[in-house]
Amino acid sequence: MENYINELNEAQKAPVLHKDGPLMVIAGAGSGKTRVLTYRIAYLMSKGVDAFNILSLTFTNKAAREMKKRISDIVGSSEAKNLMMGTFHSVFAKLLRFDGDKLGYPSNFTIYDTQDSQRLLSAIIKEMGLDKDIYKYKQVQNRISSYKNSLITVKAYYNNPDLLEADAMAKKPRMGEIYQNYVDRCFKAGAMDFDDLLLRTNELLTRFPEVLSKYQNRFRYILVDEYQDTNHSQYLIVKALSDKFQNICVVGDDAQSIYSFRGANISNILNFQKDYDNVGMYRLEQNYRSTRNIVNAANSIIANNKNQLEKVVWTSNEDGPMIKVHQSPTDAEEGRFVAGSIFEHKMQEQLPNGNFAVLYRTNSQSRAIEDALRKRDIPYRIYGGLSFYQRKEIKDVLSYLRLVINPKDEEALKRIINFPARGIGQSTMDKLTVAANHYNRSIFEVIENLDRIDLKINSGTKRKLGDFVTMIKSFQIMNESADAFVLSEHVAKKTGVLLEFKKDGTPEGIGKMENIEELLNGIKDFVEGQRELADAKADIGEFLEDVALATDLDKDTGDDDRVALMTIHLAKGLEFPYVYVVGMEEDLFPSAMSMSTRNELEEERRLFYVALTRAEKQAYLTFAQTRYRWGKLVDAEPSRFIEEIDEKYIENLTPIKSHRYTPLIDVDIFGDMDKSRLRQIKPMKGTPPSGNSPNENQLRKLRKLKPELGVPVGNTNSVDPNLSEGSLVNHTRFGRGQVIKIEGVGNDKKAEIKFDKGDIKKLLLRFAKLEVL
Ligand SMILES: Nc1ncnc2c1ncn2[C@@H]1O[C@H](COP(=O)(O)OP(=O)(O)OP(=O)(O)O)[C@@H](O)[C@H]1O
Ligand SMILES: [Mg+2]
């Protein structure tokens, strides 16, 4: 078992074997920080530390699962099972289920996701009669979120003249009231939003010393990954919990701090040595993830930032190919280039889709990439954006289930009380809401007591409301004995939600029905998973918690092989052999919204550093000369970040001679092609956009005239027509060979060739550089 220690280099061993007490590992990307954390946990356990006494906080639940799996391999799964590992939110949600009652929350509290919070705020703004163009609910939500993450309660808000003045200046003098109403309504609904999970944990630990002491004694060893991105609220929790034993191990990289817009505070890293005594400080310098060209290019970028800790990152990996830069006339062409390039790599090197990731600055960029991948039949998965669980039909079913668990859940109730339609209109809902606010009760409770209040609701509607309550109660009774799957299936049918979409009959409706089936499948999996762990009934409440806190990466079961599409923010900590960073354009990346101060620009640069360092073997940077943004075609300039990379590590793929026809010819990216057609150019700032390359309209015309030109393919190979089974050929890289088989047509025509050197390879003819002998 001790062997696993030898899977570490000397610099990594030191923090893994560090004795008790605080320690911090600050190191660049890919140097093994996460590995150190994982192995340290295994090491602690092998030295007799009880898994129950270890708490590990990660950036995604997926990362936690992977770490747990590795630890299981080392120390055995029965022990590893008892480790508390997960994101801050998921770990502290569990803790609040136990002790939240001290703050007045039911143990079955609902977790409001961002959408729920925004809907509630929007309702409050409306009820208060405020101008929704001034009090924009998304902005209001952001502000409240940042207050909470800085531990500014409503009371603290009113005591802070700066905040009051800032909101008054921003013509939002009633922010405080909105904040108060929002907090009250969440509380009354037995709900916590994401920020509450941290804020209330802090409150619990400060107000109840016995609770603090309980968890201090339980979590004797605390380990935090991606420490550079913890916010103030998270920082305080970690500080409080580790205060007694001081066995705190944090790992991070200031150069990868990319969440300051959500309150992440890099000073948490910088102050660590002040916060604890006798801090063990460790540095890792060797990168194991990426080729030398990638590591060096990344170093050359981050060197442009002024505010950073001194750090060395080197690798003994091979040089690898250059960072490839590609320019397209339009975003659609950029998508086609990326899809084409992935296709070629897959064909030539027989790689699975999971080896590829396309990273972008904003979610909306995914569309062009998706279109192109679909045309090539390359399966992909988008992470982020509107998640599965936020789709309307899924949220409808989940809302019924949420009500079963917590009938006070106002957002759930409002969603489905009249879906499917049962004649309970908006005016009835308005009356119920007013009454609920007046009596300080939930809407559900008001409905339960309709007979006792005079609400001017006619008897027909009263009966319908009564039926609704009876239905939910019948589900609650069923929930006492049935497992989560049986209950959910019953709910989906009995409420009429499934039927509603079935009746609809449109492809859209059918799609929604299928999504609900998919949800039920998911619940079934969950039930079976729970059964393997314990005999206990798989509880729907637990499933709902998983769903509410699932980061998008968590749904990735790894079962199916797909290209990953995600924002750079989400890609933190991950690695892929091939990475395409798309939309490398000024105003997009760096984002136009983040260029007004040096700090903002430096954060964008760190984001770029994160993007590039996800790549193991090969990185592509692509940009378009024109792009559709907000429905308009705009000209774009190459990102300054491309220029910042040391030229030595860059190869420009944009062929100069055929500039005019760039969109029609994909450049060979395997170097088989005649190099004289390429010129190493560094993209110039201010290159006149699409100067002599065709715009979308011209392209469309061209395609009409000559349809085969419009297909985004590589160079049509001139030898192709002469090739037949038995032909003798010469390949620039593989040498002489004989064609044994030809299959496919058009762009997909492939030849199986037995080369004299002994290999048999299947090559895509339009890319293969073959000479017929
Ligand atoms: N000593 C080692 N020997 C072999 N492979 C290693 C070693 N250390 C780390 N690796 C591998 O290098 C890769 C990067 O490691 P890891 O993800 O732990 O780095 P990191 O510092 O956490 O990166 P990031 O900053 O991106 O989060 C992983 O694939 C890991 O398994
Ligand atoms: Mg890591």
From TrEMBL:
CDD domains assigned: DEXQc_UvrD, SF1_C_UvrD
Binding site for ATP: A27, G28, A29, G30, S31, G32, K33, T34
Top-level enzyme category: isomerase
Keyword Plastid: no
UvrD-like helicase ATP-binding domain location: 6-291
Catalytically driven reaction(s): Couples ATP hydrolysis with the unwinding of duplex DNA by translocating in the 3'-5' direction; ATP + H2O = ADP + phosphate + H(+)
InterPro entries assigned: DExx_box_DNA_helicase_dom_sf, DNA_helicase_UvrD-like_C, DNA_helicase_UvrD/REP, P-loop_NTPase, UvrD-like_ATP-bd
GO function term, MF aspect, one: hydrolase activity
One Pfam family in the UniProt entry: UvrD_C
Occurrences of domain UvrD-like helicase C-terminal (ranges): 292-573
Enzyme Commission (EC) number: 5.6.2.4
Alphabetically ordered keywords of this record: ATP-binding, DNA-binding, Helicase, Hydrolase, Isomerase, Nucleotide-binding
Domain of life: Bacteria
Similarity comment text for this entry: Belongs to the helicase family. UvrD subfamily.
Name recorded for this polypeptide: DNA 3'-5' helicase
Species this protein is from: Arenibacter antarcticus
